[in-house]
Design goal:
The chain is α/β, with parallel strands linked by helices and about 350 residues long. The protein has helices spanning about 5-15, 15-30, 30-35, 45-50, 55-65, 90-100, 105, 120-125, 140-155, 155-165, 165-170, 185-195, 210-220, 255-265, 285-290, 290-295, 310-320; strands at about 40, 70-75, 85, 175-180, 200-205, 225-230, 240-245, 275, 320-325, 335. GO terms for molecular function: methyltransferase activity.
Length: about 350
């Protein structure tokens, strides 16, 4: 049975955040998470396996249990017989947060400390991020490369969802335009699953060298292309039977998001597929977006607005798409098809 913490208990955990991260990093580094995930494992077995003192390990595991990531069964007075099991997916989640290529480690390099302790002033507009701290949209080649590299780090859930739904998405598609598709990392993964597909990344011209590097690195030199342009200043290129907005629309106000979807509708071939992948607004997504919600308090030019999936499915229908559906995955996909014949 899932237990919801009281506000007071939650405040205690938040106040001890650095200590909680120390516990999680230690559990990952020692290999304890590898032993707990398949579970159940007894305290006595774990203490012997990792050569640690049982009573100290008992308290360490209490820390993990308090975080809601470990389940304990203690049938009697002998603590050595207490058994533990990690919640499914814990090791991968901890690796994603504190591992060597962790998303959170990448985020921490942004200058969020400029706001720390000064949020009240920032809310009033007295403290802001300068263009040297964070330019949105990126203004120089260096800023563009840095931003796209950072975005590629967080693609894990998107790649998983695209892989999971590959046969449903791409089996009858020839050409995909990945609008605002970063350095081509996602496009390369899509191509791994769709041998009959060609993908072009549509982005600002400054991104072209990054996509070229991805083409070379992934071996998709003949099927991964680049089209330079500005989706605000010009129509989207035509000739595609599939288009995708991945982590693009949430950065802009509602009217801009609608205009971009309208541009995709106009450019798509009849019967064409539009795929929208965003961090749709749920309690989990809000929690995982916490860093950006915090950091972008100091940035007025970036909306960064998490919306419910219904916003996008309704938008697709209003613009004219039919067969609108939501496909499952780590990040769900909102999809719609341009009718074969205009009504």
């Amino acid at each position: 049975m899932k237990v919801t913490l009281s506000p007071r208990a939650l405040m205690s955990l938040l106040a001890n955040g650095p200590k909680a991260m120390d516990v999680l990093e230690t559990a990952l580094g020692t290999g304890l998470l590898d032993a707990l995930e398949p579970g159940p494992a007894s305290l006595g077995e774990l203490a012997a396996r990792f050569d640690v003192r049982p009573l100290r390990l008992y308290k360490f595991l209490d820390c993990l249990e308090s975080l809601g990531v470990v389940e304990r069964s203690e049938p009697g007075d002998d603590i050595a017989m207490a058994t533990y099991r990690a919640v499914p997916g814990l090791r991968d989640a901890v690796m994603a947060v504190v591992g060597p290529g962790a998303v959170e480690r990448d985020r921490d390099r942004y200058p969020w400390r400029l706001l720390h302790g000064r949020l009240a002033e920032s809310l009033r507009g007295e403290v802001s991020m300068s263009d040297d701290d964070f330019a949105w949209p990126p203004k120089t080649d260096e800023q563009t490369a840095d931003f796209e590299r950072s975005m590629a780090v967080g693609l894990g859930p998107v790649i998983e969802t695209m892989h999971r739904n590959a046969s449903r998405l791409w089996s009858d598609r020839r050409r995909l335009l990945d609008i605002g598709g970063g350095d081509g990392t996602l496009a390369a993964h899509i191509l791994d699953d769709a041998p009959g597909l060609r993908v072009d990344v549509y982005n600002l011209p400054a991104v072209a060298p990054l996509v070229e590097a991805t083409r070379t690195r992934t071996g998709h030199v003949d099927r991964l292309g680049f089209v330079g342009g500005d989706f605000f200043a010009e129509p989207l290129p035509s000739g595609y039977d599939a288009m995708a907005f991945v982590r693009v629309l949430h950065d802009w106000p509602n009217d801009v998001a609608r205009r971009l979807v309208e541009k995709a509708y106009a450019a798509l071939e009849p019967g064409g597929l539009l795929v929208i992948c965003e961090e749709f607004r749920t309690p989990d997504r809000l929690a995982m977006q916490f860093f950006w919600s915090y950091f972008l308090i100091g940035v007025d030019s970036c909306v960064s607005r998490l919306r419910e999936v219904e916003f996008y499915t309704s938008l697709l229908k209003e613009v004219g798409f039919d067969r609108v559906a939501v496909l499952p995955g780590g990040w769900e996909l909102a999809c719609g098809h341009k009718p074969l014949a205009e009504a």
